[in-house]
Amino acid sequence: MQMNMTFLQGLLTNISERTRTKYRSVTSYSPEVHLKGLFDACEKLMLPGGEATQILTAQAALSHYSQLTEQEQDAFFSLLANAYSADPEQIHTAYQVYRERQDNEALARLFSACEPRRQDLLRRLNLCPGGTYELVKMRANLLKRLSASPSFAALDADFSHLFNSWFNRGFLVLESIDWNTPAAVLEKLIRYEAVHEISDWTALRRRLDPEDRRCYAFFHPATGDEPLIFVEVALCKGIPDNVQAILENEEELPLADADTAVFYSISNCQAGLKGVSFGNFLIKQVVQELSRELPQLKNFVTLSPVPGFAEWLATQRRSGAVTLPEALEQQLEEGTLAQHDTPSANQKALLRLVAYYLTEVKHKSGQPLNPVARFHLGNGASLHRLNWPADTSPKGWQQAHGVMVNYLYQLNRIEQNHEAFSQQQSVVCTSDIRRLASQAQHYMTVEA
Asked: Which candidate in 64, 220, 376, 401 is catalytic?
């Protein structure tokens, strides 16, 4: 078996290298040649053929795609959306058969007729080595166009359908990342960090090397050393209320003293996998891993940003929907909240408004407007504590006036909280936060 696998891997590598050599010169062709070459390769790929031929054709198609201009990508996506859609005649015929027979065979034929041809094309493009990651990047290009080209929504739905199968939890591999991880992967952490920027390798080492730091990432066999999502963890004594203390990490905590694991940064790495759920699996598995490694841990919490709060509050102030205490209004106008002499009354007013924003201001789905709240509450966490000043970076002041949130993950309540949120859109939170949200009604001049 080992000999056969080695032979097969060598064959695929040889095919891939031959294809790269064959199509390396196409980069000097005119743009029109790439677009026509891609169209022709896609048509050829849909014809019957041996596996080796199909791998070569898929490689050629993706090579041509990589050379397209923005305008040519539009033309290709239009082709997929229209010429590779399902055939109405076949759907109608299959439906008539199903109405007459209503058996499993007729139902299978109806399902097959309803599936757009582009799904089969995408599966065939996925045959070549590296095809999966190239398709992920292709969808990232597509997503940029959705708002301007709503007709591409059905095509995006096909990508999403396939990716949710290809990136099923059963295929994901959890890896622990530390300072000894290969540099190619570490460099990607710097590039993909989306919550708290990693300025350089020294800053990265502070997050990975100390004994009281952990980092975990999901990988997929088809995407190699490209992480899909990663989470950074700090081991602390007590629940922290300031992210700068975590990031600067001036005093390393002995593991025996740690009673809390803090998820302080979670970053999705692949824009083309938007809508494919990784985060809920990642956090739950990391909680299990840490519980086994450090059974003394009592608390599993986040220290999360509140993106959008400052923008929401500014909109409510401009519209007159919210009337703030004069002293707080003045500090917001002057941008002086970051000063050390901010009155406690202003701090309390700010936290009341954050509590109201997180628990009462809703997205069109009926869930909280704040995306981070939707993510953690949907994963079964509860809204545990509001902290100020918790993020004193320019980004922290800009997006949430320095406020951050602890979401609490309790293993024995995760499923219960998840059901309450998904079924009734209930925001599970402490009584203190509920009381703060109620007190914020005092500032509401109209429904905010």
From this structure: 376
